[in-house]
Amino acid sequence: MTPKIKAILLFIAVFAIDQYIKFIFVNGFEAKGSCISLVLAYNTGVAFSMFEFLGAYLKYIQIGLLLGIAIYLYKDREMFHTYLYPISLIFSAGISNILDRFIHIGVVDYVYWHCGFDFAIFNLADVMIDVAIVWILWIHYKTTKD
């Protein structure tokens, strides 16, 4: 299987799993714990509800950002191939969160950490974006080290 096919399958898997989990929460699933609760919340902003004031414009700004990144990667094929898998994660998670903005009142979040301190509520797509960033940093570190 070629790397591009693997990246497409990774994209589809992350997108589908993220949307399925969100579907479960939108339809009423809830589990409250002493440190972590799994509860539905709609985030109309971005991380930590920043830029909430942008309202409906935020989804179009995010689409513009992804399109800008796609154009850049189209022109810089070496970067695209170097970071193929983490880019696939970022795009699948980003598109999943943007889709939420169109079909719900905001991004569907559901993991709420409240052990010792309150932390932002997040979802699988958010975690995948974080994983992708760490993966990009790791690849960059390994390639510049050599």
Question: Structural class of the helix and strand makeup?
Answer: mainly alpha
CA distance, first residue to last residue: 27 Å
> How much helical structure, as a percent, in the residues?
55-70%
Low-confidence stretches: none
Average pLDDT over all residues: 93
What is the number of domains?
Answer: 1
Q: What portion of the residues fall into strands of 2 or more residues?
A: 5-15%
Main beta sheet: 3 strands, antiparallel
Q: What's the alpha carbon Rg, rounded to whole Å?
A: 17 Å
Order of helices and strands: HEHHHEEH
How are the strands ordered across the major sheet? 1-2-3
Shape designation: globular
Q: Tally the helices: what do you get?
A: 5
Number of strands: 3
Description:
The protein is 62% helix and 12% strand. It is mainly alpha-helical and 146 residues long. The chain has one domain. A 3-stranded antiparallel β-sheet has the order 1-2-3. The protein starts with a helix and ends with a helix. The relative contact order is 0.18.
How would you describe this structure in keywords?
146 residues; 3 strands; 5 helices
